[in-house]
Amino acid sequence: MLPPSFLVFSAYHRLQISIHEEISWSFLMGKDYGRFHLAGQTAFVTGGARNLGFSMAMALAEAGADVGISSRNEAEAKAAAETIARKEGVKTFGVAMDVRDTASLEKAAAAMEANLAPPDILINNAGGTMGSSPRHLFERSPEDIRDMLETNLLGTILCTRQFARPMVRRKYGKIINIASVAALLGRDREVYQTAALPAQPVEYAAAKAGVLGFTTDCAALFARDGVCVNAISPGGFEREGMPEEFRRLYSQRTALGRMGDEQGSDLGGAVVFLASRASDYVTGHNLVVDGGFSFWK
């Protein structure tokens, strides 16, 4: 006869398997995300028409959120929004917006409210703008440096200033600022040179480090207003046209031995977590999603 302790353990083990299978099946079939579900929520993703921005917008829609997307190019924003609506069956809206221009932000906010709702979730993702001048600091044009800082850092601050207002009034909101592992470590530029790619300019790291500082203090500012402010620092993600040599060298320097997937699904879970009720006790945090790149030596 089996001892009672074994029978109790066996019953507990079967229960755990049953719970795990039910949760996994629910996620697979889209039946119930539990505290991760975003039904009834409205998200706004800046720079959401392409690349990781689009992937994050899609992940939020998959979890049930209605989604607004901004881009400097209105046609791209509307096309991305229509694609998400067609695939996920949620309400979407695409709008032209320049994160550096307060008048543009005010106009976009009014359009969001008229077409969807003031966002419960803000993803400050718009960035980039590497410019046309050489990437080395000594050869970099002041105009390109200024544009990088204004788009990646000032834009994040101004968007938060605009879209956090209704969150504070409602005493609820989730703000996710997209930073980068570039804010956490210095780049090995030999990887770029070997793969014949231009390296990121140093002001990109400065801007993203500023985003992390802003995230921390903004979390403190809004802590008693029910608004959680967090950051995500992605590592390297594959992109179409990326040289195979760069992919190989970068993957060698990553603990998991690969880059993030091109579709951005490696980032989607982190975004949904920080956007959902599951993260209600998380604020002022920087969630690093880099496959272990930042600690692998």
Structure description:
There is one protein chain. The protein is α/β, with parallel strands linked by helices and 297 residues long. Residues 4-31 have low confidence and may be disordered. The chain contains nine helices and seven strands. It has helices spanning 4-29, 51-62, 74-88, 102-115, 142-170, 189-194, 202-222, 244-252, 265-275; strands spanning 42-45, 66-71, 92-96, 121-124, 173-178, 227-234, 286-289. 39% of the residues are buried. It has one domain: NAD(P)-binding Rossmann-like Domain (Rossmann fold, 3-Layer(aba) Sandwich). Helix 2 packs across helix 9 (265-275), helix 4 (102-115) runs parallel beside helix 5 and helix 5 runs parallel beside helix 7 (202-222). The chain has a seven-stranded parallel beta sheet with strand order 3-2-1-4-5-6-7, with helices on both faces.
Number of helices: 9
Mean pLDDT: 90
CATH topology category name: Rossmann fold
Estimate the helix proportion, in percent: 40-55%
CATH-level-2 architecture: 3-Layer(aba) Sandwich
Distance between the termini: 53 Å
| Proportion of residues in β-strands | 5-15%
Please identify the top-level CATH class.
Alpha Beta
Gyration radius (Cα, Å) is 21 Å
Total number of strands? 7
Major sheet attributes: 7 strands, parallel
Structural class: alpha/beta
Largest sheet, spatial ordering of strands: 3-2-1-4-5-6-7
Uncertain runs: 4-31
